[in-house]
Fold these 2 entries.
Entry 1:
Amino acid sequence: MEKRISLTQYLVEQQRKHGHIPGQLRLLLEVVARACKRIAISVNKGALGEVLGSAGSENVQGEVQKKLDIIANEVLIEANEWGGALAAMASEEMDSIHVVPNRYPQGEYLLLFDPLDGSSNIDVNVSIGTIFSVLRKLGDHESVTERDFMQPGTRQAAAGYCVYGPQTTLVLTVGDGVAMFTLDREQGSWVLTAENVRIPEDTKEFAINMSNKRHWDAPVTRYIDECLAGTEGPRGKDFNMRWIASMVADVHRILSRGGVFLYPWDKREPDKPGKLRLMYEANPMAFLVEQAGGAATNGRERILDLQPSKLHERVSVVLGSKNEVERVTAYHHEAR
Ligand code: P6P
């Protein structure tokens, strides 16, 4: 079997091949990967590690925090604040940004993350994950504020996720395609197991929480009804449905074999554009999906083009196989 390469060697080769990865970014990505390894160890302990259940607190979203949410957040903060690559961090679990303390050197990057996405699955042993996005700090002003983070997803320098499932897999892009690394637990190292990942443009598999059907907007209802009609309907083919309720796991399946994922606006919270967060869920996943030849919109516009105004703002998400995303988006425009 050919010799597999490590994450470090992959990043060094990317740096050498394209100059695509400045030294600071390579260091940052290796630190994030190491933090994900530590989170994987805590996640894998489950009940043995006293890490299941709720922490008895709520996050900025008003969601009950699980113990592992807080552990994962602390691991990412502690791993990243001393390295010198970052100016500040933002997390789903923290109300405001965390500026790198003065006792450490400040770098030129901003790191955003959902430290443990899919928390409702933690206690029932279903795959969960860490999602991260890297932006560059704009300008050379000293004091970093939340305004520095208000950049569209097209400005991401890197994005990725780690899925804690049957395998522990790190998926990464620096704008030159998508690579996947599987954690070799015996060596404790990330090993390249796929690169230049491609999402098929067509699919027969959709992912949506069907229990919200009565709350959807007409274009989404039309699209899903056509999928459900199968060969007897206008699509002329049968569809399959998957919903893991863990975005990382659903997106990983789509990167691995195609599919379309929808978490659209619905009338349960009419004043909110959607459930998922733009900055540290939709943007990194949209960057990965586009780099793999897929598409990602909020039903009408390209997610990566959206100009954020708030750190924790939400968005509707339709992503995956290009032709399906384009169909859903076309239905939204027709319904205008
Ligand atoms: P629902 C997990 O809480 C999450 O943010 C995503 O990972 C997932 O896709 C979605 O919410 C699941 O939401 O409403 O189906 O529980």
Note: The helical segments are 7-18, 23-45, 67-80, 218-229, 247-257, 278-291, 322-334.
Entry 2:
Amino acid sequence: MSVLVYVEHADGKFKKSVYEAVSYAKAIANQQNTNLTAISIGNVAEGELKELGKYGASKVLNVTVEQLKNFVNQAYGSVIAEAAKKENADIVVLSNSFSGKGLAPRIAVKLKAGLIDGAVELPNFDGGFSVKKTAFSGKAFAITTLTSANKVIALNPNAFGVKENAVDATIEAYSPEIKATDLTAIVKEIVRATDKVSLPDAELVVSGGRGLKGPENWGMIEELADLLGAATACSKPVSDADWRPHSEHVGQTGIAISPNLYIAIGISGAIQHLAGVSSSKVIVVINKDPEAPFFKVADYGIVGDAFEVVPKIIAALKAH
Ligand code: FAD
């Protein structure tokens, strides 16, 4: 038995969430006293694949089939499941990213495996195989026990952290058979819309709500985010009104994030918004209404007008 981790890349580079998934998978492999193999699909340079050894992957299966150059949910799911069988892996780990959310259930079905999506801690083997995970759109935690022989775990980004565990990674070319039925749609090209920090992976997030009055006032949000090296986010009404792109909408019906720092500016803190951000490590709220519900979950709160407070923070950051 062994552990397999799927390492997704963006333009040939691995993100922090991938190193986190590898670190997590390695910790499970150590618990089980077994090996960790990674599988990469697409064009990733050998040097980048070797980096995975730093976090504990002793072997990397490298799939460079032209038809799988870009992400295809169905085909990737089949390839990862086949790789798990080939490696005799009873546990498959992946990041609970956009693509991970789609892949994890597919892999689980193909392996007849139990699935834990949104894991936030390592498995506990005391009473079986139990894992703490987020539930109800991040409003609660659940401890789920898997009784199946095979297991698939999708780890929430920023939940475990990156941990070095250096081994020498061997890169092995892997050419799985690809079924035509898995390739009913092929992604020919992915064009990146922006070079900004990607929101799901961001460690720092600056977010704006309806309190900012209109899209013309987002300059200060972007400036603050640039100074901090943060991603920008927004509440649902803001993206509904087209002040900001829908890709920035966080919450129950948007993206769920768990950055180290979430700065909420002019956002009331409705339950549906909190569902997507409440697992942030530190929450800072700037709101002119001292009764705004967001203050109840804030680690730090500033009661004040965003149009006065934010420029002061920007000036202070520039002064340092
Ligand atoms: P508002 O509620 O209008 O709050 C604006 C805040 O800005 C207020 O607290 C106000 O005091 C403050 N403010 C005003 N002026 C200033 C100023 N000058 N300086 C500082 N503060 C100021 N919402 C989400 O965000 N994400 C979701 O995923 C989501 N999903 C939903 C799903 C369902 C089924 C439903 C019914 C609703 C959902 N909503 C979601 C909407 C949610 O209920 C709230 O309506 C929304 O989050 C409010 O957005 P807001 O805080 O930006 O705006």
Note: The two ends are 53 Å apart (CA to CA).
